[in-house]
Every structure is written in C-alpha cells, then in structure tokens.
C-alpha cells in the first residue's frame, strides 16, 4: 500500500485505521466536509459483516429518519386545511389498516396526502441511492444523473410518449427507464476512449443533456395545450395529483431492486479503494463499476418515471449524507434517507409557498440544488476528486 | 498548397488567397442557403419564382408566401445566425475555452428568464420592449457563470465553465418554470418561443433588432485584435500593449448584446455559437479579424439549413430550428471533447 491516499493525494491518508472498522476516534479529529483524508473503512470492514457499525453513521441515519418522520407528520397535517397531528394519524390508521373510527379527514389525508407523501419518500430515496452509486463510481460529486443526461433521456422518451397519446401510467415508467438507460449508454459509449475519464464523461453528458432537453421541448410543441401543460409540470418533477397509481408500481420496482442495492452497499467499498489495491484483491473492478452505475441509472430512471426529473436530489442527498457521517465513502442508507427528507420537505413547501398555486417540487429542489452545485464548484471540495475515473 | 515548409506558417500571399477563396465560398453558401430558405417549405416554389416575387412583386400565391412568410423568417435567420455565431466566437476567445457557447454557458437561459419575467410581470409583449430584459438577463448570467468558473484553482477550465453553466442553467430553468406554473397564461405564449424557432416571426422584428445587432457587431469587431493578443495569454497580451480588462469588458458586452438580441428574436438556439467558430477557425486560421466575419457568414448558413431541414423532415409539421441545431451540435461537442486537448 502506498504512503499517500490515492484519492486525496495527502500523505498518510490511511494512517490510524482501527481494527474491525471502528475508525471513529480518528474521524472526529479531521476537518469537516472535506472530500477525503479520512479512513473510516478499510479492508477489514469486509470481514466485519454486511453492516458496519460505524457509530456516527448509525446516529446520522437515526437522526435523518426521525427528521423524515417529523416532516411526514407535518406533511399530513398541513395543506389547504390544517389537520391536527393526532387526527391525521387516526385517519391514516383507519384508511390504511381499517383501525379505529372513520374520520372526516379520511379523504384528505388517506387519499390525497398520504399516497403523494409515500411517492415522495420513495422517489427521494431512489434518487438518493442513485446519486450515491454514480458519484461513488465516478469519484466526482458532480456526476449526478440529472447532470449527465439520464433524467433528460427519461424525460424525452416519456414526454414523447405522452404527446403521442400514451397516457397509461402503467407504461410510462418503463419508457422512462428505457430512456434513461439509453441516454446513459450513449454518454458512456461516446465518452469511452480507451478508458473513461470523469471530466470527459461529464462534459459529454452535459452536451447530451442539452440536446435531449431540446428534443423534449420539441415534443411539447407537438402536443395540444393541455398535454403540454401536463407534460411541462411533469418535466419539472411534480407530485401534484399523484397517488397510489404511481406509488404502487414504484414501490414494487424498488422492492425488486432491493437485492441489488444490498449488493451495492458491499461492492461500493471495494470500488472506493484505489484501482491497484482493488485489482490486487481480485475485484473485477470494471464489472463492479458497471453494475453499480447501471443500478444507479435504473433507480434514477424509475424515480423519474414516477414523478418526473426532480432535479438535484441525486446530487444533494449523497453529499449531505457523506458530510454528516464524515465517512470517506458515500453511505447508501443515509443518502436514501436524506433524499426522502429533501423531497418530502420540498413538496411540503411547494404546496404551501404560493398557495393556492402549487409549484412542481422540482422547482424547489433546483432552487436549492443549483446554488449548492455552485458552492461545490467554488469550494475546493468540488475539485479535489476531479481526476478520478468514471465507471 | 505551396506552403513554405521551412517557415512555421504559409506565406502571407498564399494565406490571403486562401482566406479570400474561402470567404467567396462562404458567401456563395450563404446565398444558396438563403435561396433554399425562401424556396423550400410545405409548398415548393421554384427559385425563378422566388426571385420574381422579390424583385417584381406580383400578387400570386407564391409571391405572397415568399414575401409575407418566408422572407421575414429568412432575414431573421440571417441576423440571428450571425449574432449567435459571433457571440460564440467572442466567448471562446475571451474565456480561451473551446466549448464556450451561449447555450451551454447559460447566457441564453439568462436572456430567456429576462423575457419570461417581462412577459409575466412587466406586461411587456413586444420584442422592442423585452429585448432590454433579455440583455439584462444575459449580462447577469454571463457575469455569474464566468465569476464562478474562474474562481479558485485552475481558472476557468472547460469543465468548470460547463458545470457552472449547467448550474446557472438549472437555477434559471427553475425560475422560469416557477413563473410559468404560477402564471399559466404566459406558458402558451412562451412555449413556442422557448424552444428556439424561426417560424411565425413577423417583419417588425427585423426592424427592431438590427440596431442592436449593429452595435454588438461593432463592439466585437473592435476588440478582434485584442482577442488575438489574449489568445497568447494574459501576460503576452499586456506586453503587446493591450488593455486586457477593457478588451474583456467590451468583448463580453458585445457577446451579451448579440446573445440577448438573438434569444429575444428567436428563442435560445443551442450550439450555433459552439460549432460555427470552430469551423471558421479551421478554414481561415485563428486571426479574429477573419474568424468573426467568417463566423457571421457561416452562422446563418447553419441556422437556415437547420431551419429548412426541419421544415421538410416531417411534413406537414415542422421541427423547430432549435432542435435541429442541437442535434447537429452534439456530434460537434462530442468530437471536441474527445480531442485530448480539451478535457483539461
């Protein structure tokens, strides 16, 4: 093993590793929020079992989960009419599990707010994990699915289908996944030049994103006004008027993808090692990376299919999670929780901010995410990991 | 070519001859593109009839179509194509960055937001009115993108420029969408304009945009030499007696006006400003006094041809020129990025 950490170039990056994965004490002493310089996990983590007990990560996950629950309760209470938390919970219990008495809030809470909130939670979690996987492989926080064209590909295909008369919500998600995968494959193929360089990958992704966005706009002008209005809202990522019809299929899709995510949680660790070490350990790096990226793209496209491209969640959530846990690699569970929290909070605000008009949730996430992207560019954190290879 | 192999560049006479030859070719191409744009459409009109309609008037259907529909569209295409191509050339010169383009850097989106705000809040519905908003938006966006990209280590590398462009783009798109969602009436007026198209623009626009086009062109031509010096590096440019700051400011102002007027007239047309300067440099060399006029000739050719192809691709409906230029532009960007020198 070399004396310098391959990712940060700082000397002694691997020093001070505690056996069996309890790198906690060292972790605290390091600078906050930096891209590397910590060594939370080493090879021995792999022997420690699937769930590494990194105390800080566990605490962060717990905190995020509590915050998400709190926001969810608020989400159910707040709206056109305010419903007391206790009544909201009663309504949920009654409508979902038939417990207790029917309440006058059943319709508002059980039929309008709960499904929409559930969808938001799942979409956020899916984007969070997708972003974490792609950022891990690219070793670059900027390579998120909505910047490299995945979301735009999913949008283009979906809006195209909508304008040509496909209105079945059963079909749209599949088209969306196909579009996202196709876009990612295109970017991958065109960025491949005897290897994959992160900067080239990102630049070509941005180019494709622009072109795909203009194709989406083309479809918008084709359809009649109502379809355009609908598609326009969808395109920005909106949970408005959505319910179990979208949340159900997304839930099943996520369930199907769950084993993949569990695999990814372990495989991710080997990828975050430097290439030589991983290869020496017998890891088939190329395949693992391809698998992780594919999973990320599928997750992002699936979420896009259900709610439209909710911009920047995939960029933000993993970064927030990583900064909170202060681990060298991006924690999947915390990313998922952070994503869910972001989307539900943003949708809550989107509903209330300009009431009675509802903004698409994607407007709010972009309004928060874009400045964060700028901050990433301005701070050295955004550049420290530039040189890495993508996929 | 009879280039002198001992010297690093071809003899001057040969270079001038070559440049003049290419200029003539570009002028011919421009005339052809103009003729195509006037003659081709859902109804084909013979070139002789087109000329007849332009020169002698006449009241036939064909003459009517040419004069009332296709002529304004073509003239606007000529002006906007030239404006965006020159804007792209200047941006690439100022940033010394081969992938600079008003669309990618978010400057067009800035102009768009200006227009949206003008339509939705200021109650401005004429181009003469909202062109100022477009300028303001384009100016703010270009300053922001450049400031973000050039701060920190390494200066404004292609990746940082493209990413800060993407960030500003996303932010501005969310503003646009927020406005359009809350003001549904503006959407219908806006959605056709937003995509970048030459269709359905009336003659008045021509009268309104030419003064701005002229001012922008004068500004960028004025700093052509300064851009040449800048290409050698900031220190060399200073050594050559150029006031680098003035060159940058004037060039940025010119590019902003050209982008703003182009976007206000035809919506954001992506990639014209990216591809054309490279073609121009490939055929006349790096001298901005040649590249700028050449770009002004090739830009309209690209835009008009994109527009014509869009008209005949899926009759009877049209593919807007903005989509066509994007589709033509992407292979260009891919080629540029794949060249080793770019991916810094």
Write up what this structure looks like.
Chain A is 66% helix and 0% strand. Chain A is built from 15 helices and no strands. The radius of gyration of chain A is 21 Å and the shape is globular. Chain B is an all-alpha fold and 344 residues long. Chain B contains 14 helices and no strands. Chains A and B meet through helix 7, helix 8 and helix 14 of A and helix 6, helix 7 and helix 14 of B.
Annotate the secondary structure layout.
The complex is a heterodimer of chains A (391) and B (344).
Chain A (H helix, E strand, L loop, with lengths): L23 H6 L25 H23 L7 H13 L8 H33 L11 H14 L8 H20 L6 H25 L2 H11 L8 H28 L3 H6 L4 H23 L5 H13 L6 H22 L7 H18 L2 H4 L7
Helix pairs in contact in A: 2-4, 2-13, 3-4, 4-9, 4-11, 4-12, 4-13, 5-6, 5-7, 5-8, 5-11, 6-7, 6-11, 7-8, 9-11, 12-13, 13-14
Chain B lengths: L11 H28 L7 H10 L4 H35 L11 H14 L6 H24 L7 H25 L1 H11 L8 H20 L1 H8 L2 H6 L4 H23 L5 H13 L3 H26 L7 H18 L6
Helix pairs in contact in B: 1-3, 1-13, 2-3, 3-8, 3-11, 3-12, 3-13, 4-5, 4-6, 4-7, 4-11, 5-6, 5-11, 6-7, 8-11, 12-13, 13-14
The profile of the biggest β sheet of chain B is:
none
The portion of residues assigned to helices of chain B is over 70%
Unreliable sequence segments of chain A:
1-52, 380-391
Beta-strand fraction estimate of chain B: under 5%
Give the C-alpha Rg of chain B: 20 Å
Distance between the termini of chain A: 23 Å
How many strand segments of chain A?
0
Write down the overall mean pLDDT of chain A. Answer: 76
Shape assignment of chain A: globular
Biggest beta-sheet profile of chain A = none
The beta-strand count of chain B equals 0
The global form of chain B is globular
Order of helices and strands of chain A: HHHHHHHHHHHHHHH
Q: Structural class, from helix and strand content of chain A?
A: mainly alpha
């Amino acid at each position: 093993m070399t004396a310098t950490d391959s990712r940060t170039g700082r000397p002694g990056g691997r020093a001070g590793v505690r056996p069996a994965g309890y790198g906690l004490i060292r972790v605290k002493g390091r600078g906050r929020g930096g891209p590397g310089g910590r060594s939370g996990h080493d090879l021995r983590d792999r022997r420690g079992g699937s769930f590494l007990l990194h105390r800080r990560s566990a605490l962060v996950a717990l905190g995020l989960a509590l915050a998400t629950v709190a926001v969810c309760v608020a989400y159910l209470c707040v709206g056109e009419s305010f419903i007391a938390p206790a009544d909201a919970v009663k309504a949920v219990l009654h409508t979902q599990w038939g417990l207790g008495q029917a309440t006058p809030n059943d319709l508002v809470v059980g039929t309008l707010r709960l499904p929409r909130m559930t969808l938001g939670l799942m979409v956020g979690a899916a984007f969070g994990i997708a972003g974490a996987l792609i950022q891990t492989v690219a070793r670059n926080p900027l390579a998120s699915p909505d910047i490299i064209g995945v979301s735009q590909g999913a949008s283009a295909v979906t809006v195209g289908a909508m304008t040509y008369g496909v209105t079945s919500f059963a079909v749209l998600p599949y088209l969306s996944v196909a579009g996202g995968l196709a876009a990612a494959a295109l970017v991958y193929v065109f960025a491949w030049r005897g290897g994959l360089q992160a900067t080239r990958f990102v630049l070509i992704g941005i180019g494709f994103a622009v072109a795909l966005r203009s194709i989406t706009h083309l479809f918008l002008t084709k359809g009649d006004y109502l379809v355009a209005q609908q598609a326009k809202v969808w395109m920005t990522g909106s949970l408005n008027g959505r319910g179990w019809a979208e949340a159900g299929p997304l839930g099943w899709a996520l369930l199907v993808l769950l084993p993949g995510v569990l695999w990814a949680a372990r495989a991710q660790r080997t990828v975050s090692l430097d290439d030589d070490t991983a290869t020496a350990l017998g890891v088939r790096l190329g395949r693992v990376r391809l698998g992780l990226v594919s999973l990320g793209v599928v997750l992002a496209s699936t979420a896009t299919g259900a709610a439209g491209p909710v911009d920047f969640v995939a960029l933000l959530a993993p970064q927030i999670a990583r900064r909170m846990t202060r681990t060298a690699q991006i924690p999947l569970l915390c990313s998922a929780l952070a994503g869910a929290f972001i989307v539900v909070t943003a949708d809550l605000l989107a509903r209330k901010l300009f009431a009675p008009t509802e903004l698409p949730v994607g407007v709010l996430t972009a309004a928060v995410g874009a400045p964060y992207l700028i901050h990433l560019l301005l701070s050295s954190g955004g550049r420290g990991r530039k040189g890495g290879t993508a996929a | 070519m009879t280039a002198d192999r001992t010297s690093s560049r071809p003899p001057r006479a040969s270079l001038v001859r070559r440049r003049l030859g290419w200029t003539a070719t570009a002028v011919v191409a421009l005339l052809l593109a103009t003729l195509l744009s006037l003659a081709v459409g859902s109804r084909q009109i013979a070139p002789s009839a087109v000329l007849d309609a332009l020169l002698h008037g006449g009241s036939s259907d064909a003459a009517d179509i040419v004069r009332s529909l296709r002529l304004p569209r073509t003239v606007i295409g000529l002006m906007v194509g030239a404006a965006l191509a020159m804007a792209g050339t200047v941006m690439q010169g100022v940033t010394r960055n081969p992938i600079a383009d008003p669309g990618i850097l978010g400057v067009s989106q800035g102009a768009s937001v200006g227009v949206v705000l003008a339509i939705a809040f200021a109650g401005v519905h004429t181009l003469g009115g909202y062109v100022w908003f477009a300028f303001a938006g384009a100016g703010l966006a270009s300053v922001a993108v450049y400031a973000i990209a050039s701060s920190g280590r390494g200066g404004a590398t292609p990746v940082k420029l493209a990413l800060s462009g993407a960030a500003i783009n996303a932010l501005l798109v969310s503003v646009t969408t927020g406005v359009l969602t809350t003001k549904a009436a503006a959407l219908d007026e806006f959605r056709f304009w937003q995509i970048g198209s030459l269709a359905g623009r009336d003659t008045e626009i021509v009268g309104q945009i030419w003064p701005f086009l002229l001012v922008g062109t004068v500004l960028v031509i004025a700093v052509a030499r300064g851009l040449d010096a800048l290409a050698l590096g900031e220190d060399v440019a200073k050594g050559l007696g150029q006031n680098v700051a003035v060159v940058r400011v004037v060039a940025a102002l010119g590019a902003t006006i050209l982008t703003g007027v182009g976007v206000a007239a035809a919506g954001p047309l992506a990639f014209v400003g990216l591809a054309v300067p490279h073609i121009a440099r490939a055929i006349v060399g790096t001298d901005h006094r040649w590249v700028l006029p050449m770009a002004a000739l090739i830009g309209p050719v690209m835009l008009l041809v994109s527009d014509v192809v869009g008209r005949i691709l899926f009759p009877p409906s049209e593919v807007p020129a903005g989509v066509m230029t994007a589709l033509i532009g992407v292979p260009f960007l891919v080629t540029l990025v794949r060249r080793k020198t770019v991916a810094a």
